[in-house]
Design goal:
The complex is a heterotrimer.
Chain A (H helix, E strand, L loop, with lengths): L1 H10 L3 E4 L2 E5 L5 H10 L5 E10 L16 E9 L6 E9 L4 E3 L8 H12 L2 E3 L25 H5 L5 H5 L2 H4 L1 H6 L1
Parallel strand pairs in A: 2-5, 6-7
Antiparallel strand pairs in A: 1-2, 3-4, 4-5
Chain B lengths: L1 H32 L15 H11 L10 H18 L17 H9 L1 H12 L3 H32 L4 H11 L9 H15 L23 H26 L13 H24 L7 H29 L1
Helix pairs in contact in B: 1-9, 1-10, 2-9, 3-4, 3-5, 3-9, 5-6, 6-8, 6-11, 8-9, 8-11, 9-10
Chain C lengths: L6 H12 L8 E5 L11 E7 L2 E8 L7 H6 L3 H8 L7 H16 L5 H29 L5 H20 L8 E2 L2 E2 L20 H24 L2 H7 L7 H6 L5 H5 L6 H4 L20 H24 L19 E9 L2 E9 L7 E5 L1 H6 L2 H5 L4 H10 L4 H5 L1
Helix pairs in contact in C: 3-4, 4-5, 5-6, 5-12, 5-15, 6-7, 7-12
Classes of the chains: A alpha/beta, B mainly alpha, C alpha+beta.
Chain lengths: ~180, ~325, ~400
């Protein structure tokens, strides 16, 4: 893994190896070229997945980021090499006001459904995608459920964290055990 | 008039009982092969469960979808059933116990057996369901394809027996001392059984029903008593075709070494035993084989069975003339 | 006017008469969401011309439960309950990559014994998943008997999983830092912790021997059947290149001839301590996909037998804080699940729950290849190919 990371580092300046995961950050304009390069030069032919993260300071679900972040979409792909253990996470940032990025379908055919999922869940437009339509959600569904601003109705009814959730932590009932171990 | 009624009643009773026996055999055979108990609660160790089954279907609602072609949809099961029962008319259970000893018995049987196709096709077409339609079309293609080897396989027997009457064929086998399956018609018998399995639409030729592909094929939209009629006629068809096969190839109501003068007494038992043995082979095949693909099925009929049966006819004819 | 007597034209006419095709309108056949062979609620909108399939459009979402969203409002220990419902045929395997990811971020070293127990149960889950596949696939190509054998044998394995975890399908047995004290074991005092139930080793040995026998039986009963071979050989051939580009993983990829197994590549569980083969197919057809899975069952059984013999002693849990807070960071952990690569990308912001949890499931990528593979297939082949991909709708829709 170290060896591969050093190789990656030569080509990509913004590369990190944290928690056994190699991540490279690229500019959204280099999105296509980066993937082409990784596929052809680094033999990362296996397309694992594509997804996005919605970075926002005001959230309606979960916890807001501890440190203030600039609102943006982070788009992530995971590529790997079947023969070796090489695996890489490619990440890029796009602005929320005009969320669009070039589609990877030309390079990795498997990106098709993943991009459709990111399109309906986050509202990100993938340019040149052959059929960018909803994958999971029914026709006429409004909104993009995975956005941090999208409310989770069950949590609206019962605010998070509910009392039961905190009480039921398994560590409390088994505290004597963990001391043992 | 009374005679006709008695004959029809006799036919229906025997065919229905045959179907019930074959149902029990199929289900018990399945549970035996699949290492599970099977039906246990109705009657003696579950052996009369088909009666409960019939009662269950009869009391269920007969759902007729709104878009179907109502008269055709309603009458298709009856059509299939009648053609099955009529088939049994020419099968002799002993020299005298036969509803109609026709001069052209074989011809009649084969003609009637292809009538069921129309019932299946109309059922599939009138259901206004795409799965049913595909099932009906598959059934039509399959039954037409296997009608030919079925007929051609019988031609060998007819040549050998020099008669088309089923009683005559059995008498000829008694005269010969051995059944035709031993006396030169083994290939004819195998072709007949394969084609008959396809006619019954049983595994491995059950594409018209093909529950993993077409849900239930041409029966998809049927329920209640109409489904029951399809269900029973399937087993009836199985029973009757096995009976015809035993008559044509296995010596019918007679077994060698038994005294021919007592044939009227043991005839029915012998025929039913032979039928049951053939039926059991079909049961064993059903629960151990996967299903062919549609094109493989057609290839088997047109490229293997029909040429083989033509060769069989040729050989039989040469032997007949030569010896 | 074309001169019909011109020798050239005659030639072309005679050709035309052989290749004449009746123009027919394609029929749209809606397969699913309620259909016996769609493994739940997958819907395929197929354009068929008679028996021939022209265009297939999978419609997903009938089982979409939004786990990625739900995970954002839950704490890490609660998420294990969610994730083992993703691929319910092999519930235990789904917990492993998630728990490993959380442990990696918290930098907890899991005791060897806990790792071994995890490994044994993961392999058992794989065996039970392949049993289901075996039975269901035979059913799909029309053989009605093998599913009864498969279910009977699978029950033996599920009984073992139940004896340890208390649940057949959804064990929820992993804890951050180790595993839960086993169900049905001895008393709970501080010194005498609950462990594997009495007789577990003995029962497992018997059951694994039965699994090996059952796999042999399947090879004879299904694999040796001529009709089955006719239905599956050279049907739905998938090349390694296409499989890679689509992210197809697991036994399907191995059936296409790629020797790729994440058990050897990543160190989420101590697989390197055991000896086992990785079965690889040659042609990438339906038969190979079936064959690879049957052979895998035997290999899994061998791994379990070895793991039982080399089970280390020691605690079941590492020392973990009372309230689990995962430090800031992100990691991707993948594992070889029965259906392929399953991974969790955890983005933690130092809170009680993840900021974002991306769930990478095997079946989702595996069936995204369906439209490609089904082009021009026959309708019975459609069922055979779909079945050979062995997907679970919970794993597709999440």
């Amino acid at each position: 893994m170290e060896e591969f990371f050093n190789k990656i580092k030569e080509s990509f300046t913004d590369a990190t190896l944290e928690f056994e995961t190699i991540t490279i950050k690229v500019d959204s304009t280099e999105w296509i070229e980066t993937h082409q390069n990784l596929r052809d030069q680094f033999n990362l032919k296996f397309f694992s997945w594509l997804s996005a993260i919605d970075w926002d300071n005001e959230v309606s679900v979960g916890e807001a980021p501890k440190e203030s972040v600039s609102p943006s979409f982070e788009i992530i792909t995971c590529l790997s090499d079947l023969a070796n253990t090489n695996l890489i996470i490619v990440s890029t940032s796009i602005v929320k006001s005009d969320p669009k990025i070039k589609s990877l379908v030309e390079i990795y055919a498997g990106a098709n459904w993943h991009e459709r999922e990111a399109f309906e869940m986050f509202g990100i437009n993938f340019e040149n995608h052959p059929n960018l339509e909803k994958l999971y959600l029914p026709d006429g569904y409004e909104g993009n459920p995975m956005l941090k601003s999208f409310e989770l109705i069950s949590r609206e009814v019962k605010p998070w964290p509910g009392e039961v959730d905190v009480e039921g932590m398994p560590e409390e009932s088994e505290s004597d055990k963990s001391e043992d171990g | 008039m009374t005679e006709v009624l008695i004959k029809v009643g006799f036919l229906a009773a025997v065919a229905l009982n045959g179907a019930i026996i074959f149902t029990i055999m199929d289900v018990k055979g399945a549970s035996w092969m699949q290492r599970r108990p099977g039906p246990l609660h109705v009657g003696l160790r579950g052996f009369i469960f088909p009666l409960a089954e019939i009662l269950k279907f009869v009391q269920k609602e007969d759902i007729i979808p709104t878009e179907v072609d109502r008269p055709v949809f309603k009458w298709a099961p009856a059509y299939v059933m009648v053609s099955c029962v009529a088939l049994f008319a020419v099968v002799p259970m002993s020299p005298t116990l036969v509803v109609a000893d026709l001069e052209l018995g074989v011809f009649f049987a084969l003609a009637i057996s292809s009538l069921g196709t129309i019932g299946v096709l109309t059922a599939g077409w009138s259901s206004a369901n795409k799965y049913s339609l595909m099932g009906g079309l598959r059934a039509a293609g399959q039954l037409i394809a296997y009608e030919l080897p079925l007929i051609l396989a019988v031609v060998g027997v007819v040549i050998q027996a020099e008669t088309m009457s089923l009683v005559g064929i059995v008498e000829k086998q008694i005269e010969w001392g051995v059944p035709f399956v031993v006396g030169g018609q083994i290939i004819g018998f195998l072709i007949f059984m394969v084609a008959a399995t396809a006619e019954m639409m049983r595994v491995p030729f059950d594409m018209p029903i093909g529950e993993s592909e077409l849900t239930m094929g041409f029966m998809t939209e049927y329920s209640g008593i109409r489904f029951l009629i399809f269900y029973i006629s399937e087993y009836m068809n199985m029973f009757i075709l096995c009976a015809i096969a035993s008559t044509l190839f296995l010596g019918g109501y007679h077994v060698p070494l038994l005294p021919t003068e007592w044939v009227n007494f043991y005839g029915p038992v012998v025929l039913l035993t032979k039928t049951a043995i053939l039926g059991f082979i079909l049961v064993a095949i059903r629960w151990s084989q996967p299903r062919f693909r549609e094109d493989q099925l057609q290839n088997l009929a047109w490229k293997i069975l029909i040429p083989a049966s033509l060769v069989n006819i040729l050989v039989t004819a040469v032997m007949k003339v030569g010896f | 006017m074309v001169n019909a007597l011109d020798p050239q034209n005659i030639n072309s006419f005679s050709e035309a008469s052989v290749s004449v095709e009746i123009e027919t309108e394609d029929m749209t056949l809606n397969i699913g969401p309620q259909h016996p062979s769609t493994h739940g609620v997958l819907r395929l909108v197929a354009k068929v011309d008679g028996e021939k399939v022209h265009d297939v459009k999978p419609v997903l979402g009938y089982m979409h439960r939004g786990y990625e969203k739900l995970a954002e409002v839950r704490t890490y220990p609660q998420i294990t309950t969610l994730v083992n419902r993703i691929d319910w045929v092999a519930g235990f395997s789904n917990e492993i990559p998630f728990i490993t990811g959380a442990e990696r971020l918290m930098e907890i070293e899991v005791p060897e014994r806990a790792k071994h127990i995890r490994l044994i149960l993961t392999e058992m889950a794989r065996i039970s998943s392949h049993f289901v596949f075996n039975g269901a696939y035979a059913l799909e190509v029309g053989a009605l008997t093998p599913i009864f054998y498969a279910m009977e044998d699978r029950e033996r394995v599920l009984d073992l999983i139940e004896s340890v975890t208390g649940g057949r399908f959804h064990p929820n047995f992993n804890r951050i830092g180790g595993v839960k004290p086993a169900a049905g074991a001895g008393p709970t005092t501080k010194k005498d912790i609950q462990d594997l139930p009495a007789g577990f080793y003995r029962d497992t040995k018997v059951a694994m021997q039965k699994v090996i026998e059952a796999a042999d039986q399947f090879q004879n009963l299904i694999g040796g059947n001529e009709v089955f071979k006719k239905r599956t050989k050279n049907v739905g051939v998938l090349t390694a290149e296409t499989a890679e580009a689509f992210g197809v993983s697991g036994p399907i990829l191995r059936a296409s001839g790629v020797k790729s197994d994440l058990r050897t590549q990543t160190d989420y569980l101590p697989y390197d301590q055991f000896e086992y083969d990785i079965p690889v197919g040659e042609n990438g057809d339906c038969y190979d996909r079936w064959d690879v899975r049957v052979k895998e069952m035997v290999e899994s059984a061998k791994i379990v037998l070895q793991a039982i013999d080399s089970m280390p002693s020691g605690p079941l849990q590492a020392k973990v804080p009372k309230v689990i807070k995962v430090p800031k960071g992100r990691t991707y952990v993948r594992a070889e699940n029965p259906k392929g690569e399953m991974g969790y990308y955890i983005v933690s912001d130092g809170g009680l729950g993840p900021y974002r949890l991306k769930v990478r499931t095997a079946s989702f990528s595996n069936i995204s290849i369906l439209p490609n593979m089904l082009e021009g297939a026959l309708l019975p082949d459609l069922i055979a190919i779909m079945g050979s991909l062995d997907f679970v709708l919970g794993d597709v829709d999440r």
